[in-house]
Amino acid sequence: MAKNKSAKKTTAKQNAASSATSDPQSSKNAVDLEKGAASKTQKPDSHFPIVGIGASAGGLEALDELFDHMPPDTGMSFVVVTHQHPGHTSLLPELLGKHTKMPVAEATDGVKLQPNHVYVAPPSSSLATLNGTLQLMQPAAAKPGKPRLSIDYFFHSLATDRQHQAICIVLSGTGTDGTIGLKAIKAESGMAMVQKPESAKYAGMPSSAMATGLVDYVSPVAELPAQLVAYANGPYLKGGMPPSVKSLPADSMQKIFLLLRNRTGHDFSHYKSSTIQRRIERRMNVHQIDTPNNYVKFIQDNPSETDLLFKELLISVTNFFRDPAAFEALAKQLLLLLKSRPEKYTLRVWVPGCATGEEVYSIAILIHECMEQINRHFDVQIFGTDLDNDAIEAARTGVYPDGIAGDVSSARLERYFNHEDSTYRICKEIREMAVFAPQNVIKDPPFTKLDLISCRNLLIYLDSELQRLLLPIFHYALKADGLLLLGPSESTGQFNDRLETLDKKWKIYRRKDAAAVAYTTPELPTSTTTVNKPLKGNAAMTDPNDPAAKNPKQLSAIIERCLLEELCPASVVANERGDVIYVHGHTGKFLELAKGLAGTNVLDMARKGLEHELASAIRRVAAGAGRADKKNVRVKTNGDHVLVNVSVKKITDPESIRGLLMISFLPIEEKEAVSRATSDDSTTGSKEKPGSIIELTSDGDTNEVDLLKSELQHLRESHQATLEELETSNEELKSTNEELQSTNEEIQSTNEELETSKEEMHSLNEELTTVNSELQSKVEDLSQTNDDMQNLLNSTEIATIFLDRDLNINRFTDQAKSLISVRPSDVGRPINELATHIKTHDLQKYCQDVLKKLTAFEIEVRSTDGKWFMMKIMPYRTSENVIEGVVITFVDISPLMAGREALAFSQSIINTVTQPLVILDEDLHVVAANKSFYKTFKTSEKQSAGELLFELGSAQWDVAELRSRLEQVLSKDKPFELFEIEAEFPKIGRRTFSLSGHQLDRDEGLPGMILLAMEEIT
């Protein structure tokens, strides 16, 4: 290992030395970087952002322009990752060094990143960063036709290593490399910038990155540096540490929550405050807003910022088979679950917070593999839900970038995905298992009768109050032996007794049968109002719906006022069920803790002799009486007896705590009890009988009899109250029965109507089935016609593109790809956004002219590889003669143009010959002649071309022997030379010429031609 490191350092020094001979600036950059790597004693500053820059085809121009405008003292470190052939010797460091004053050199293994330096990834290695040092990794073997995703690889490591200080820039390039890595950086609260696709030479990578909806800045390359510097100088990254979670005032947070709820309908007030504030502060930094109040105003003035903040808050860490070991553990439990299910069973799964669907499809693939393993088939319904409608739409599409190859094995990619250009589409078999829908798991009803719930890394973003609300929902939604899968950092908290732990490390639980009836779906909060908490002390055992729990701050003052009115006897405040809310004074003589489980019900704690009287008084007050008193109640306490007057009074003021009872205990002397009892019986004839005795005596038997009399009196009163309640209940039941009978008749009538509607629906269903069959047949016919048309277009080998009226691509043939950089995913894109291989022609303008004039347009064009095409643009007319766009065809005319060039070349040669030459066809008519011929005989092309040789001039060529020799040249391919002819020629007089005739070489089947040469020998 030491030898390899030494060799790498030597190579780096040799590269730097060799660069010095060609470029002094590059030599300086390389030496500076080498010094930075060798500086072991100096502790570098780790609190600076690292900018990862990804580029592919056409990226060199973009990189040059980026560093042309990048200041040399930004305080950031730049790492450039491009697509290069592994065996290629990269000149990129030298080229970039000419466009920046920062040191630029190729990255070496273990080099410590320094601010204001530029590092270029080598072609033969994958680049990663760990603790601020670059690591060169051996790249995985790339599949044929599929590029190595080096940009995604580096962005992923940068997100993990630098978190909120990670910044990525995606420049010109083909494919989708960088998209998955960008998501990882955004998940760690980093920042993302993208070159504007219209300004990119190749828009594939920028467009794919923009499609995520997570990009912070989209601008031409020249504008990106200024935005980057402004962001880095903002408070979010200043000092290198994330901002304090206490930096945002509570009132500003509440206003932001309110604006979010009004705009999106979702309440974020119960999300983890640290996460929420960090996201908000990052958005403030993007817009260079320094105070929360100004950001609140900015949101109010720019509703679109609310949507972007909503997206920011919903960023989730998701990818296929995240934590592979967790899925392996889940597969073991799924196998057991599937084996226990009967035939034709429907397996139901719920994935709340599914984002763009990666986890849903991962579970679908896992279930499919388990079914294949046990050789059984089930209907599978997997419900994926999320707050983000855009994420749900992406999940429904099921199309993902090339970068998922790093998370999905080759076998699964081959089995469950279809590769389309630079994307993977989930196969139909898996797609049909999943159903995606927007849902707020906090407010909307849950799915039920589920076999599995996978809620990974959602609970960690919610506060403890929401977690206590959600876990009972999950428990309620699961079947008796259903499985619950949580994230590694999540737990079931206080609900462990209802769930059985199957895998402690990967948080897999199973619902216990014994707890199946212990849960009902709780009522969830739907506003920003904080849920009221129970009172401390004795109130901890009360029902939170009791009046006492609604206004705890006023309770003490109210109770003290009520007690003062009663001269402050020992008292308790309870609800109508007897649950103690508040205790005042010494009540130990009258109340004691009951045996068994601890409780605070006053009836359970009443001492012997008090329980019946107290229950009677509470029942009377609860039934409507304002107050009930029990006098001279004999209570057994500590081996003795005491007498007490008991008063139960309903608290009616304030209205907010109505329904509470105040129970007061006033001890009395026995003499006083006798006096009061006698006075009451003689003067008032009180209806209230003594609770235990009428006459005191020391005889124990008499006391026991009095106690029995008291209990009998209590039973009589209870019996009478029960009879009255029973009679009332009977009357109510009679009334209810009559109402039910009426309702039953209405239901019977409704049932008859439903039966009629059912028959109508059955008839309508049959009609729809017939129509559906016809439509299916037409779809098949249209599909066949479409296939025939596509094959016809491809068989013509003519590049053809169909555009709509807005000049967006509708359809194209395979041959068109060689002239215009078009892919199946480009359907719907404007033609002017695509790169063309046609030289200097404004295709968009030609198309607009055709739509305007409604006439065809033809022009000869030349491609960048030297081929010639006849480009024809025609209006696209429908069967109703409506113009719906244009059709562009490219016919290869390279052979024709080559013939033209050959003919022009031959013509130029002939014209340079000083002897008169003439070409004759098989009928001895003049096809062409050179300039010397026209000059010698003082004639013109117009007078000679097409004329019979023997009729030229004054028929001076009409010589029998010449005719004979010319005919032999054609019939026997017998040339002749030095045939002399003397004649009187018009305009030049008598002259003598020596003639030579030869047959021209022609392709088989073409008529013969003669080249006749003339030399004057007068």
Identify the notable features of this structure and list them briefly.
seven-stranded parallel beta sheet; Rossmann fold; 28 helices; Chemotaxis Receptor Methyltransferase Cher, domain 1; 20% strand; 6 domains; 1018 residues; single chain; disordered N terminus; elongated; alpha/beta; seven-stranded mixed beta sheet
Structure notes:
- The protein is α/β, with parallel strands linked by helices.
- The chain folds into 6 domains: 2-239, 3-Layer(aba) Sandwich (Rossmann fold), CATH 3.40.50; 243-313, Chemotaxis Receptor Methyltransferase Cher, domain 1 (Orthogonal Bundle); 324-515, Rossmann fold; 537-696, 2-Layer Sandwich (Beta-Lactamase); 796-892, 2-Layer Sandwich (Beta-Lactamase), CATH 3.30.450.20; 909-1016, 2-Layer Sandwich (Beta-Lactamase).
- It has 28 helices and 34 strands.
- Strand 30 and strand 31 form a beta hairpin.
- Helix 11 (292-301) packs across helix 12.
- The protein is elongated and about 180 Å long.
